[in-house]
């Protein structure tokens, strides 16, 4: 009887069999399914980066890159963002493997060879100085060449010190891409990397087809000024004016910075006079001063340690209707700390936050302040700035902890240095323990106790005779000095 009752409880009834067949299976058998869940983008990008590293090892895998990618990434849905992230995570020596990955994604995984997809590949290859692979990709996918790809290619060529090759790439462009935008990219790349003469020759060569505008002239003048060629910059400003153009304010600020740098190098005392001459020339041509002009002047004054003149110029910015930017504040804070004007530096930091530039006070800026304060032996204030950095939500790094621990130890503050080391370990910052010597200036010298020396008998007799002699001489009448007539 009890066996029949047990079987009824274990076996399902016929009435519930049909409903049980319609219900989905319990969750346990679902885990035994062979279907894989889609991988998130970050893990897929890491897998692609690892595959690029595996293909770039020595010796490489026995299979071809196309077969390798087909075996491991046959179900990948590529996007431009995924490709850029995979290249950012890949090891340095993966240039040719990255080109093979792009070919595989275009041919097998239907990635559209657009400008946005080709630009990160070209930037990755050119950063490794693999320009033959870049040229092969551009020749293989000519329809994908666009402004972003061209900008990356020209900029990396100029950065690698190949201005002639950059000009040649521009000359070989097809008719639809050889326009004013491409010429601007060429001039900008060459001028920013210190080749303004090549940029000027390229602009003059195609002047009949693409006449330079104000932007190209500004880039050329700024390139000559940044390269320290003041005569060529002033010549180009004159040619631009005679041609009916007016270089932008950025060009004038770059020339002003060039004037200040040359004066700092040759005769720092003449910097104020030469800068004032150029400012008068700017006003005569109808170019007003802006925040960048004052930033250039204040930065160069701080570099020759004229902090008070820089502060006076900072206070007078309102007369020209200008407000200081974040870089001006940072330069002044560093200069005030360097001049040991600690309270003024803290006040300038408060003004910077109230002006809306608090986001520019990041971990890098705070580390610069701490380094300056430790350099002038103001360790207590450096610790204060360190606490301020943590209070505003910026996690200190290895450099900040190591610098403060070393300085606190040298100042004979070992307990505080140990506490800071324990805090770094608790936060997960890998600070390497080391041995630091205490500076002798901060070690208190021990006072030697004077031990009373026991005199010998001859020394006692000598002291006794000396005391008796003084006593006898005290009763002798001293002669009065006679007044001279």
Automatic annotation (TrEMBL):
<protein>
    <recommendedName>
        <fullName>Pentatricopeptide repeat-containing protein PNM1, mitochondrial</fullName>
    </recommendedName>
</protein>
<feature type="compositionally biased region" description="Low complexity">
    <location>
        <begin position="13"/>
        <end position="22"/>
    </location>
</feature>
<feature type="repeat" description="PPR">
    <location>
        <begin position="213"/>
        <end position="247"/>
    </location>
</feature>
<feature type="repeat" description="PPR">
    <location>
        <begin position="290"/>
        <end position="324"/>
    </location>
</feature>
<keyword id="KW-0809">Transit peptide</keyword>
<keyword id="KW-0677">Repeat</keyword>
<dbReference type="Pfam" id="PF01535">
    <property type="entry name" value="PPR"/>
</dbReference>
<dbReference type="InterPro" id="IPR002885">
    <property type="entry name" value="PPR_rpt"/>
</dbReference>
<dbReference type="Pfam" id="PF13812">
    <property type="entry name" value="PPR_3"/>
</dbReference>
<feature type="region of interest" description="Disordered">
    <location>
        <begin position="13"/>
        <end position="40"/>
    </location>
</feature>
<dbReference type="Pfam" id="PF13041">
    <property type="entry name" value="PPR_2"/>
</dbReference>
<comment type="similarity">
    <text>Belongs to the PPR family. P subfamily.</text>
</comment>
<feature type="repeat" description="PPR">
    <location>
        <begin position="362"/>
        <end position="396"/>
    </location>
</feature>
<dbReference type="InterPro" id="IPR011990">
    <property type="entry name" value="TPR-like_helical_dom_sf"/>
</dbReference>
């Amino acid at each position: 009887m009890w066996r029949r009752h047990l079987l009824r409880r274990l076996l399902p009834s016929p009435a519930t069999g049909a409903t049980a067949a319609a219900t989905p299976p319990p969750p346990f058998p679902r885990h035994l399914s062979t279907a894989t869940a889609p991988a998130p983008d970050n893990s897929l990008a890491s897998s692609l980066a690892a595959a690029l590293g595996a293909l770039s090892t020595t010796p490489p895998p026995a299979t071809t890159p196309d077969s390798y990618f087909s075996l491991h990434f046959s179900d990948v849905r590529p996007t431009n963002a995924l490709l850029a992230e995979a290249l950012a995570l890949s090891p340095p020596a993966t240039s040719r493997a990255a080109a093979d990955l792009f070919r595989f994604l275009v041919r097998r995984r239907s990635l559209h060879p657009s400008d946005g997809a080709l630009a990160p590949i070209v930037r990755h290859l050119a950063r490794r100085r693999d320009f033959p692979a870049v040229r092969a990709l551009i020749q293989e996918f000519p329809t994908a060449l666009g402004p972003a790809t061209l900008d990356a290619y020209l900029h990396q060529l100029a950065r690698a010190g190949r201005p002639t090759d950059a000009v040649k790439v521009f000359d070989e462009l097809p008719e639809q891409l050889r326009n004013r935008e491409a010429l601007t990219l060429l001039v900008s790349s060459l001028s920013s990397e210190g080749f303004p003469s090549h940029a000027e020759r390229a602009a003059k060569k195609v002047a009949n087809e693409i006449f330079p505008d104000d932007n190209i002239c500004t880039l050329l003048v700024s390139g000559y000024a940044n390269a320290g060629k003041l005569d060529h910059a002033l010549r180009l400003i004159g040619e631009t004016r005679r041609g009916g153009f007016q270089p932008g304010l950025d060009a004038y600020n770059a020339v002003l910075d060039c004037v200040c740098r040359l004066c700092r190098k040759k005769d720092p005392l003449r910097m104020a006079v030469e800068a004032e001459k150029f400012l008068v020339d700017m006003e005569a041509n109808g170019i007003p001063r802006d925040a960048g002009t004052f930033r250039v002047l204040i930065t160069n004054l701080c570099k020759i340690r004229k902090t008070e003149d820089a502060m006076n110029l900072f206070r007078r910015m309102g007369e020209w209707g200008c407000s200081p930017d974040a870089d001006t504040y940072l330069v002044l804070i560093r200069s005030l700390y360097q001049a040991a004007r600690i309270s003024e530096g803290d006040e300038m930091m408060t003004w910077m936050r109230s002006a809306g530039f608090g986001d520019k006070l990041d971990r890098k800026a705070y580390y610069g302040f701490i380094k300056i304060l430790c350099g002038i032996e103001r360790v207590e204030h450096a610790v204060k700035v360190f606490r301020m950095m943590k209070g505003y939500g910026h996690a200190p790094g290895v450099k900040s902890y190591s610098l403060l621990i070393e300085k606190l130890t040298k100042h004979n503050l070992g307990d505080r240095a140990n506490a800071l080391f324990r805090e770094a370990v608790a936060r997960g910052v890998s600070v390497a323990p080391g041995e630091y010597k205490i500076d002798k200036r901060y070690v208190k010298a021990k006072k030697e106790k004077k031990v009373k020396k026991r005199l010998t008998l001859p020394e006692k007799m000598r002291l006794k005779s000396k005391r008796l002699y003084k006593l006898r001489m005290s009763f002798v009448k001293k002669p009065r000095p006679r007044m001279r007539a």
